[in-house]
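INTERNAL AUDIT FORM
Audit reference: QA-55
Scope: verify that the stored structure record matches its stored sequence.
Auditor: D.O.
Record contents follow.
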Amino acid sequence: MKDIKSNILIILVCIILGVILAIQLKSVENNIGSSTIPTQRAQQLAIDYKKIQDERDRIRNELDNLEAKLKQYEKGEAEKDVYLENLYKDIEKYRVLAGYESVQGPGIVIEINDPPMEVLYGEDSSAIVDNYEFLLQIISVINATEAEAISINEQRYTSFTEIVPAAKHLEINGVSFGPPFVIKAIGKPDDLENALRIKRGIIWRMENLLNLDIHIKQEQNIVIPKYRKIKEFRYAKPLEEISN
């Protein structure tokens, strides 16, 4: 009798263990199945994103070639007439001022990186992004030192440029960037660097208060790309002159 009870008990334990094992196997299968679909979807999205980027770059290159041909034609026509030539030069000047022309010249390159990981408060934080107003102060200083063109991570800085924090990144001209941030400025190199390195100035505060890793170097031929977004004026209109 005792053997029968023992056998029944063993059978019940085996059944319970079998049920538990079956439930665990089913759970694993469900997890594998559910994780496979997102992984495949993520891979497909990455492929589609790369195709879109390649197509965007192709269209940009084609647009640049067409603009170069148009500029060459406009310049050729302008040279035939003094008035048109002066008008062409004025248009070029204002396109450069607005940021719609790529430019090159001497200036400085500022590379700003986060401090070492052990200094940061958490892996998901970025000292630069959390204190991005320091980048705006750098731009203000070099603007005040008569910089003629500025870019951040190859994005032309203009009066229309937006710099907005988003998690560990900054949105610059609608493009997402993480550290390091590289600011380029065309102007008189010595004046630009001296303005930034002034005692207790912006660079000093960033290095000593935030422990940021900052490098400034002078270069004789910096290339700054043009501003690619098209700004449409919906509210601002030219002021009409009122004759007396």
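Auditor finding: record pair retrieved intact. The longest helix spans residues 2-78.
Action required: none
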